Amino acid sequence: MAERRNGGWWRPGHGGLMLTTWWVAVVAATVVMATPQMALAQIQNSLPPPCDSEIYCHGELLKTVQMAELHNDSKYFVDMPLKNSPNDTLRAFQELMDRTQNNPSKEDVSNFVPRTLRNRGASLYRGSPTTGRLSEYP
Q1: Most buried in the list 46, 68, 82, 136, measured by CB within 10 Å?
Q2: Which GO molecular function annotation, any one, does this entry have (predicted)?
């Protein structure tokens, strides 16, 4: 059985192990802090991405554009509609990556984006109150 001596705990018969209150608190805090963080990391690694778009939600294209920091607002890119199908856009991106040995410059990315995506808000439609017809903004 441990007994209290000189501000710590002394456990006879175990090599004279003395644990201070401070040391016990540090070990307890580490266990309490590490466990939720490890559990959260496990949960996050097992979850699917928030959406299935390899362009707007996850994947190399999104990572490459965001890392190039083309815009001050990190959400700007995801508000830009595609000019072509997702497959065509991903194919064009793969061609860019192949041409640059998977290391495109900021200029390469800055040229790629306007070729494959429309300006932010370009998918808005305007309507005619007299005809009721909708047309896409250019």
Answers
A1: 68
A2: alpha,alpha-trehalase activity
- C-alpha distance from residue 98 to each of 91, 94, 101, 102, 104 (Å): 10, 6, 5, 6, 9
Q: Give the residue from 62, 107, 103 showing the smallest Cα distance to 82.
A: 62
Q: How far apart are CA 87 and CA 84, in angstroms?
A: 8
117 to 70, 75, 89, 96, 123: CA distances (angstroms): 13, 14, 8, 15, 11
The reply to whether the predicted model has a pTM over 0.70 is no
Both 88 and 24 in one domain: the answer is: no
CB 61 within 8 A of CB 93: yes
68, 14: one domain: no
Domain with 27, as residue range(s), is: 3-46
Q: Compute φ and ψ for 17, nearest 5 degrees.
A: -65, 125
